[in-house]
Amino acid sequence: MKHAYRVLALTSIAVFLVSLDLSIVVVAKRTIDEELDGGSLITWVFSAYAIAYAAALLTAGRFADVFGRKRSFLRGVLWFSFGSLLCGVAPTAWFLVLARVIQAFGGAQLSPASLALVLPEFPVEKRTQAIAIWGSTGGLAAALGPSVGGVLVDTLGWRSLFFINIPFTLLTVILGQRVLRESKDPNAQRKVDYPSAVLGFSGVALVVLGISQSEVWGWVDGGTLGALVVGVLLCGAFALRCHRAQFPVLDLKLFRLRFVVAANVAGVLFSMGFIGMWLLNTFWLQAVWGYSIAVSGLATMPGPTCAAAVAPFAGRYADRFGHSRVLFAGASLLALGTFGLNATIPDSPAYVTHYLPWMLVTGIGVGLSISTLSSSATAFLKPTQLAMGSALNNTFRQVGTALGAALSLAIAAPALSRIESARRSGESVLDVSKVEIHGAWLMNAFIYLAAGIAMVSIFKRPTESQMSDARGA
Q1: Residue 93 and residue 43: Cα distance in Å, rounded?
Q2: Which of 199, 214, 412, 442 is deepest in the core (most CB within 10 A)?
Q3: Residue 266's pLDDT is what?
Q4: Element (H, E) at 367
């Protein structure tokens, strides 16, 4: 088993970096804008990464199965490293946006391949615990993004956010050549149905584009509605093509598995609540309490730290008590923490008494939830479905992230606008109504509860036949 844990550690490093770059750059928005003078284009530094990453995931899973998971993983790491270098030296905002797209393509290529490399190294009975560790690194990275990003921007400048990736990615490639074993879908011919790949990529890209830009364009804007409608139609055409194609990008039989459906439905909801809670917490610390970027980032640290401590044990709990029960417990704690924070947080800073306790509660909830979602989606799949199943789960969660961010920002926007106006006019922010932010917090708390209820309602433990298939028997 020593080799298995070396593979797990190596792939987790790459997944950590990819997840970190989804959130780490948000804290540098103002600094990047001041240096590159990007104006409205700066929003695309963040949106372009999320859109390209989500859109490329589905096709990346199939390419890994057909052409080799080790090959896809290492190639993805190299592309991610190259994109990071380009981001670090970017002379203009346009250049930075294009470099972020290259980064995202690399991240999308390595993510499903990484899990497909890990799981065959473990017996089915130990996969849930392995995925708990693998999944917790991604969740921890996303939560740590504001903390790490704030410190790096304040000390080394925004370009360090990208340069820091390069030594870790190069080390991963060097060690990966020695440690990783190549694997493929033995039943897959070296063929990919490229029309379905184009339909899937375009459909997901347009859906995420419409959702992520809705806060800027407006939900009833022609661009938003057009992107969503065309994206949904293309996703429908993608599903139809996958049903008919001899070598589909996505095996639709995955949706016959109750544990896969439950994990993806709950994953969308969890991601909506998670990104919304994180954004609102950060806004409150900075806009209302007046914390700096670095201090607000450090203030969130206890939550991710608690999640990282709990997540490795979540797999053991899931094996013992059931995935649906552990996810429901985690979602309930997240809802409780969000309800409690919303009900008690004061306008004046009171970190130890009114913020920290709720961060610890939500941290435990994240630790129980995030790895359980990943393991329930992939631990019981056939070896030939691992990369595809991982890609599907990641795609659903990225769509959930985009939707959660858009909804929370849309609801909280009036309060944030009033706070910004008060600061410009020299008025006291404490006198500004913040009812919309509280409303957005409540929405996210109910979304967490919905994730737990969906998991309990839909999830069904794999049958003995499915377990036998997962073992490759």
Answers
A1: 10
A2: 412
A3: 94
A4: helix 356-378
Note the helical H segments in 157-193. Answer: 160-163, 165-179
Let me know: does 17 contact 165? Beta carbons within 8 Å.
Answer: yes
| pLDDT score of 143 | 64
Alpha-carbon distance of 115 to 386, in angstroms, equals 7
109 close to 79: Cβ distance less than 8 angstroms: yes
Torsion of CA 242, 379, 53, 146, to 10 degrees: 160
Structure tokens at 271: 């991601």
The mean pLDDT value for 376-386 works out to 79
Domain 2-192+249-470, CATH number (from 2.60.200.20, 3.40.50.150, 3.10.450.50, 1.20.1250.20): 1.20.1250.20
- List the one residue out of 269, 293, 298, 272 whose CA is nearest residue 283: 293
Mean pLDDT over 112-132 rounds to 81
Mean pLDDT is lowest, of 65-79, 81-95, 140-154, for 140-154
Question: Tokens for 245?
Answer: 């194609």
First to last CA, the chain: 20
Torsions phi, psi of 249, nearest 5? -70, -35
Can you tell me whether residue 292 is helix, strand or coil? coil
- What radius of gyration do the chain's Cα atoms show? 21
Residue 418 CA to residue 401 CA, distance in Å, equals 26
Render pLDDT for 33-55 as a digit per residue (tens, 0 to 9).
778 876 667 777 777 888 888 88
Q: What is d(CA 251, CA 463) in angstroms, rounded to the nearest whole number?
A: 20
Q: Calculate what percentage of the chain has a pLDDT beyond 90.
A: 27
Report which DSSP code applies to 255.
G
- Map out the domains of the chain as residue ranges: 2-192+249-470, 193-248
Instruction: Compute the distance between CA of residue 236 and CA of residue 330 in angstroms, rounded to an integer.
Output: 33
271, 143 Cβ separation under 8 angstroms:
no
If you write DSSP's letter for every residue of 24-38 in order, what string do you get? Answer: GGGGGHHHHHHHH--
Whether the model pTM is above 0.90 = no
pLDDT at position 473 is 46
Dihedral, CA of residue 364, residue 369, residue 370 and residue 374, to nearest 10: 150
Half-sphere exposure of 250 (CA within 13 A, CB side): 30
